[in-house]
Amino acid sequence: MSSNFTISLFLLAAIACLSQGCCPERFMQVGNRCYYYNSDKVDWHDARHACNRLGAHLVSIHNYEDSREVYVLWKSLVDESWDKAYWIGLHDVQNENFFEWSDGTPMDYSLWYPGEPNNHRGEDCISPLNRGSNDFDRQKWNDFPCGTRKPYFCRRSATS
Ligand SMILES: [Ca+2]
Ligand SMILES: [Ca+2]
């Protein structure tokens, strides 16, 4: 990589940083939000803790735009869109059928796959099911066993 190119990338990042706040290293910036994707497959609790260690939380989704933002980012990062999707912050670990986001934000929107959540053999942790013929259906959620291993998405705010 030429040094001019490196300097240009640095300047671009700095300009984004000035206008919208900065993201930590290894995070991807979308507006004033910072995303971190890890393709290592881990259980939901490990994913939650990994995000916390980065000063972030598993993503929460409060409208379709939130869902789409994460999904589009994921599709740009993975080679195979039939991969096992990714953990998000929704769970009913504390109280069965009482769903909450790990970042403490209210449960004010849902995008369940038809027939879900079904708590099949005790499922308390949520990921898109990645099933269906179009991008909208593939974003819809399923409750999985929390011990299932999946990649995960963390999010935090950019700092100004
Ligand atoms: Ca459950
Ligand atoms: Ca389920």
Automatic annotation (TrEMBL):
<feature type="signal peptide">
    <location>
        <begin position="1"/>
        <end position="24"/>
    </location>
</feature>
<protein>
    <recommendedName>
        <fullName>C-type lectin domain-containing protein</fullName>
    </recommendedName>
</protein>
<feature type="domain" description="C-type lectin">
    <location>
        <begin position="30"/>
        <end position="155"/>
    </location>
</feature>
<dbReference type="InterPro" id="IPR016187">
    <property type="entry name" value="CTDL_fold"/>
</dbReference>
<dbReference type="InterPro" id="IPR050111">
    <property type="entry name" value="C-type_lectin/snaclec_domain"/>
</dbReference>
<keyword id="KW-0732">Signal</keyword>
<dbReference type="Pfam" id="PF00059">
    <property type="entry name" value="Lectin_C"/>
</dbReference>
<dbReference type="InterPro" id="IPR001304">
    <property type="entry name" value="C-type_lectin-like"/>
</dbReference>
<dbReference type="InterPro" id="IPR016186">
    <property type="entry name" value="C-type_lectin-like/link_sf"/>
</dbReference>
